[in-house]
Amino acid sequence: MAGFLVHAFLLQLIGIAILAAASDTRALLSLKNGVGDPSRSLESWNASTPSCQWQGVLCSLHGRVASLSLQNSELRGSFPIEFLTRCSGLRRLDLSQNQISGSISGASFGDGGCESLQWLDLSGNDLAGAIPPELLTASPASSCVGEQLQGIVPPALGNCTNLTIALLSYNNLHGAIPPDISRLQNLWWLSLSSNRLTGKIPPSLGELQTIVVLQLGNNSLEGDVPLELSKCKNLIMLDLSANQLTGTVPSRMELTSLIVLTLSYNNLTGGIPGELSSMQNLYKLDLAHNFLAGPIPESVGQLKNVQVLDLSENFLSGRIPDSIAGLTFLFNFNVSYNRLSGMIPQKGQLTTFQSSSFEGNPGLYGFPLSNIRPRDSPALSVEEHHSDDGYREELLAGVPCFIISFLVATTATILLTRASQVQKVLSLRR
Ligand SMILES: *[C@@H]1O[C@H](CO)[C@@H](O)[C@H](O)[C@H]1NC(C)=O
Ligand SMILES: *[C@@H]1O[C@H](CO)[C@@H](O)[C@H](O)[C@H]1NC(C)=O
Ligand SMILES: *[C@@H]1O[C@H](CO)[C@@H](O)[C@H](O)[C@H]1NC(C)=O
Ligand SMILES: *[C@@H]1O[C@H](CO)[C@@H](O)[C@H](O)[C@H]1NC(C)=O
Ligand SMILES: *[C@@H]1O[C@H](CO)[C@@H](O)[C@H](O)[C@H]1NC(C)=O
Ligand SMILES: *[C@@H]1O[C@H](CO)[C@@H](O)[C@H](O)[C@H]1NC(C)=O
């Protein structure tokens, strides 16, 4: 009797699996029928072969469609969003670099969900509409949120709580970033760059405890850089560049894991906080094209791993701190178009850059700029005369130093290729 029950139970399980697999096949075929496929990328998708053998499809051991990769396949037409809910076993969907259009916020759906979805890459398409807050939440309250937003929100992506990677960059998404995004407690990579997003950066992003890469660049976001982001202790890359952000660079952003911090092309004011030096893993610090004023803090010289330091096109004044000369890995340095003055410290890494790294600072002089101190230089302090005395010595010492630092830099570049490959992958996948 017991044996019979177990048997029946197993048969039932197998039956369910077969039904689910058949429903996956139907969902895939409806996807095929719904999109334009001029280069016949989906030619192998026909009912005479099992769907697990179709181009771009990978199945789980249970025969469910687990992964669909159709990146760069010249697919066009409107986004088959219901596919996500019909293929409930889907863990990875990559439709990036196609010409898929339409709104991701305007469809209606049947049962099912996307609890399994972990990797969603829709970047480089032509998707429009608002980001469905329901992409982000499985809470029972979400239907109320939907009503408040007058039905523009589909329940489609409602249960995607296991999403770890959501790449929606290079589309036409507009509206604000839904604060509820913080409910995606498994998210580690979120890219919304190069859309038309407006409004403030929700402070609730600070509750994304698992987030490692956060890319919001090239939108029209305004308001402050929320200090709450400093709660994202796992952040390695934070890109908020090319927005309309105002306020200051938060001084208490103790994100010690951060490798890339890009706040360039915004309207940030105030000074460069010396506390940034606590980010000891920083590889790239880009604050260019803002309205930052005041001196470059001496403590920038404590960013021992920094390789790219771009402070150009701001209103920074005072001298270039000597400490920067000691940043052995620095290979891309730019302080052009500021109000810096005095002599460029003639030592270490600072002797390896071209004049375009320093140009546009009327008070700045010394190699690689002219050696002649500008007559109308605003800062002709006693201190300056002192450093001027040591100028010739430093210049002579600078020659072997240049060669040594070149060797060090070359070795470092080879050693750190891995780091820059990571960086390359990240910037390609923006
Ligand atoms: C289905 O695809 C296979 C190749 O994957 C092809 O040989 C076959 O002709 C196709 N059948 C139909 C009906 O298109
Ligand atoms: C979320 O999952 C629940 C239970 O699995 C289901 O009843 C509901 O319809 C799903 N919601 C969406 C929007 O798919
Ligand atoms: C998704 O997350 C829920 C908890 O939110 C968990 O119970 C479930 O097993 C996860 N599903 C998958 C397929 O990872
Ligand atoms: C910025 O976003 C727009 C679309 O909003 C896109 O056309 C442009 O290429 C993006 N710029 C960069 C530098 O990525
Ligand atoms: C940012 O600065 C630009 C250039 O000065 C200005 O046109 C724009 O209105 C400013 N935006 C905000 C939000 O302050
Ligand atoms: C430094 O920045 C300025 C302005 O942003 C740019 O014109 C120049 O090419 C840059 N120089 C280097 C070496 O990156």
UniProtKB/TrEMBL annotation:
<dbReference type="InterPro" id="IPR003591">
    <property type="entry name" value="Leu-rich_rpt_typical-subtyp"/>
</dbReference>
<dbReference type="GO" id="GO:0016020">
    <property type="term" value="C:membrane"/>
</dbReference>
<keyword id="KW-0812">Transmembrane</keyword>
<dbReference type="InterPro" id="IPR013210">
    <property type="entry name" value="LRR_N_plant-typ"/>
</dbReference>
<keyword id="KW-0732">Signal</keyword>
<feature type="signal peptide">
    <location>
        <begin position="1"/>
        <end position="22"/>
    </location>
</feature>
<dbReference type="Pfam" id="PF00560">
    <property type="entry name" value="LRR_1"/>
</dbReference>
<dbReference type="Pfam" id="PF08263">
    <property type="entry name" value="LRRNT_2"/>
</dbReference>
<feature type="transmembrane region" description="Helical">
    <location>
        <begin position="395"/>
        <end position="416"/>
    </location>
</feature>
<dbReference type="InterPro" id="IPR052592">
    <property type="entry name" value="LRR-RLK"/>
</dbReference>
<keyword id="KW-0677">Repeat</keyword>
<dbReference type="InterPro" id="IPR032675">
    <property type="entry name" value="LRR_dom_sf"/>
</dbReference>
<dbReference type="Pfam" id="PF13855">
    <property type="entry name" value="LRR_8"/>
</dbReference>
<protein>
    <recommendedName>
        <fullName>Leucine-rich repeat-containing N-terminal plant-type domain-containing protein</fullName>
    </recommendedName>
</protein>
<dbReference type="GO" id="GO:0004672">
    <property type="term" value="F:protein kinase activity"/>
</dbReference>
<feature type="domain" description="Leucine-rich repeat-containing N-terminal plant-type">
    <location>
        <begin position="22"/>
        <end position="60"/>
    </location>
</feature>
<keyword id="KW-0472">Membrane</keyword>
<dbReference type="InterPro" id="IPR001611">
    <property type="entry name" value="Leu-rich_rpt"/>
</dbReference>
<keyword id="KW-0433">Leucine-rich repeat</keyword>
<keyword id="KW-1133">Transmembrane helix</keyword>
